[in-house]
Design a protein that fits this description.
heterodimer, A: alpha+beta, Cytochrome-c3 Hydrogenase, chain B, 4-stranded mixed β-sheet, 3-stranded antiparallel β-sheet, 14 strands, B: Rossmann fold, 2 domains, 5-stranded parallel β-sheet, 12 helices, 5 strands
């Protein structure tokens, strides 16, 4: 048997380090392994014995791209344990800072990590030579997302202002006004981004996935809701551990997740969008329709358009929140620790992020469980590769490799998160 | 006319959250200009393209936590003219250095069902424990203005201007009222290296030391003040044991409060 190995040094334009191994038998894909070798950092272990107050600052360090997601899941889970109710304006501010993270993280992925795949560039710097205006607009849009986080959080990466019960310092209505001006520009830029991404070339590739995301009766999901799917899942977040299971497989440092009853499932923008289309703002719905999307999108390559729609929604929602904002009397609700277990899911840019904390009566963390979206998406990424590779097998090796990378990048995998580089190895047996 | 070769910049990642290298992509106003001045020769988070070394300037993010990474940092050093560490992980071992105070086997079994699959060192150590480092940029995360300053300084052959004084000086420079004196909020500012812009006091909370210790900090005096303000021994232990726990001044002071 003739065996041939294609080795590409590293899967680029993902956050973290991983490798992909593909074994082909003729035109059949015999095996696919997405291997995450980002070194383990043991967050769940090092949280033990720490005060509940440390959780948002420490878990933020799992990921520099989506620290707000970690802070939000941490504070909501701990508030759930302590039976704390957050007042509506505080909740709105949390939603606002999350909008900033979606704008920043999605813009980074759409233009700097994903778009170069569609247009055949190695990176955004190369792409900027031919698309100077597009990239200039992208950088400005990303900057505004970061400005939202920096105003509410103190800085864009590992913000310092989020705490259990609320914030350390809350902004006045006047402080938010200049942000609104920037966000109006950003909303137009986001609308343009939806149009621009819709014009990219997409392979014909659809699958009837099980989409999983939060769902809320009145809003597009950020911080709360029930966990639902298009195949019958509908549970309170507290039921997460009963519905999902994590497995430790030998080839990766990230635990694999699956639905106990049905196996692989799909998290992230495509899932959120397809389960919550009717909760998008009218402007975002209209832009999605004009871009040729239906209310459900099953082509993972089109996730780039859906991310653009979510950027647009986040700008729209941020403006709505700023418009209705009244400064609360105090920056945080008083916290009274009690011995309990708390659960939360929030919607990180890459999908649902689950935190669970068991705390004692002094507020010390006894144990913690954190399940990031990328580790939950590992199985579906492998499944996509298994299905997609036969479509592109006729391509020259370098093109084939690039298409595999693009398939992985559809999920904006954040490998730093998933363990808390991608080398690509393809073995062909003729 | 001879064309001057653009200096080659490389970005390397070890155990980390990616936030410090993201700071480079977060330089929205400067990114394209930087890309015009240097050849971004290796930056996997941002580009598929890789140019072979040697590299004029290597930015290293993350700490050394696996046998493989301990080898890899030696290769990075050999391929680099200047090597600059960016952030608390690379400079002092990062949050993952909390394992250094515990049994890593226990840590592995808490997180992973099959610990034998995991290849990890017992410690998380800074880059300077393994190879010669030309400059260390502090912060968890680094300040992107300081990153631009460091890149610019190395390109022009001068020393980076990153003041080594404490966060207290930054509060004074920004006109921020001292949270410890005025409100009795325990603050690590007096012993913490400047660079963040004193954002925690500006947001009405005490500094938590994410830039690590300043030069010759008086940690003992500060810990006494924390005790007077009502901080428990455990609180004091934990505040030194966060993102720069392995930095010598913080490690030694934390050990005083261990039992």
């Amino acid at each position: 048997m003739n065996t041939k190995t294609i080795k590409v040094d590293m899967l680029a334009r993902v956050e973290g380090e991983g490798a992909l191994y593909v074994r082909l038998k003729g035109s059949q894909v015999a095996d696919v392994k997405l291997k995450i070798f980002e070194p383990p950092r043991f967050f769940e272990a090092l949280l033990r014995g720490r005060s509940f107050e440390d959780a948002p600052d420490i878990t933020a360090r799992i990921c520099g791209i989506c620290p707000i997601a970690y802070q939000m899941s941490a504070v909501h889970a701990i508030e759930d344990a302590f039976g704390v109710q957050i007042e509506p304006q505080m909740r709105a501010l949390r939603r606002l800072v999350y909008c900033g993270e979606w704008i920043e993280s999605h813009t980074l992925h759409v233009f700097m990590l994903h778009a170069p795949d569609f247009l055949g560039y190695a990176d955004v710097v190369q792409m900027a030579k031919d698309y100077p205006e597009v990239i200039k607009r992208a950088l400005e849009l990303k900057k505004i997302g970061n400005a939202v986080i920096a105003l509410l959080g103190g800085r864009a990466i590992h913000p310092v202002n989020v705490r259990v019960g609320g914030f350390y310092r809350i902004p006045s209505k006047r402080e938010l006004a200049p942000l609104a001006e920037q966000l109006k520009w950003a909303r137009d830029a986001a609308l343009e981004t939806v149009r621009w991404t819709a014009g990219l070339p997409f392979p014909d590739f659809e699958y009837d996935y099980e989409f999983v995301a939060l769902q809320h009766p009145d809003e597009y999901p950020f911080n709360e809701g029930r966990l639902v799917s298009n195949k019958g899942l509908n549970i309170a977040v507290r039921g997460y551990d009963n519905a999902f299971v994590e497995e430790h497989v030998p080839y990766t440092n990230a635990l694999h997740s699956r639905l106990k009853e049905r196996g692989a499932y799909f998290l992230g923008p495509l899932a959120r969008y397809s389960l919550n289309f009717d909760k998008l703002s009218p402007l975002a719905q209209e832009a999605a329709r004009a871009a040729g999307l239906e209310a459900i999108c099953r082509n993972p390559f089109q996730s780039i358009i859906v991310r653009a729609v979510e950027i647009l929604y986040a700008c729209d929602e941020a403006l709505r929140i700023i418009d209705g904002y009244e400064m609360p009397d105090r920056p945080a609700t008083e916290i009274h620790p009690r011995a309990a277990t708390g659960y939360a899911c929030t919607e990180a840019p890459r999908g649902t992020l689950y935190h669970r904390y068991r705390l004692d009566e002094t507020g010390q963390i006894l144990d913690a469980k954190i399940v990031p979206p990328t580790s939950q998406n590992q199985k579906i990424i492998e499944d996509d590769l298994r299905r997609f590779i036969p479509q592109v097998l006729h391509l020259p090796e370098d093109q084939l490799t690039w298409r595999c990378e693009q398939t992985i990048r559809n999920y904006d995998p954040c490998i730093s998160c998933a363990t808390h580089f991608l080398k690509l190895y393809i073995t062909c047996e003729e | 006319m001879a064309v001057q070769r653009k200096p080659k910049l490389a970005v390397w990642k070890f155990a980390s959250c990616d936030g410090c290298q993201l700071s480079l992509l977060d330089c929205e106003d400067e990114l394209l200009e930087i890309a015009g001045r240097v050849e971004i020769a290796s930056f996997p988070e941002a580009s598929r393209a890789r140019v072979r070394g040697p590299y004029d300037l290597s930015l290293v993010e993350g700490s050394i936590t696996t046998p493989h990474d301990a080898e890899r940092i030696q290769q990075v050093r050999r391929a680099s003219r200047f090597l600059v560490t960016i952030g608390a992980c690379a400079t002092s071992g990062g949050i993952q250095a909390l394992r250094n105070f515990k049994d890593v086997k226990e840590f592995t079994s808490i997180v992973y069902a099959t610990p034998s699959y995991i290849d990890t060192l017992a410690t998380s150590t800074p880059i300077a424990d393994h190879v010669r480092v030309d400059f260390e940029l502090r912060g968890c995360p680094i300040n992107k203005a300081q990153l631009v300053e460091v890149i610019s300084a190395f390109l022009h052959g001068r020393k980076p201007n990153t003041p080594p004084h404490s966060v207290c000086i930054e509060c004074k420079l920004h006109g921020i009222v001292c949270v410890m004196v005025a409100q009795g909020i325990p603050c690590l500012g007096p012993v913490t290296h400047a660079g963040c812009g004193a954002i925690c006091p500006a947001y009405h909370r005490g500094c938590y030391g994410c830039f690590g210790p300043m030069e010759t900090p008086n940690t003992a005096a500060l810990s006494r003040r924390w005790s007077e303000l009502g901080a428990s021994r455990q609180t004091i232990l934990h505040v030194y044991r966060t993102f720069n726990a392995q930095a010598e001044a913080f490690r030694k002071e934390s050990e005083v409060y261990e039992h």
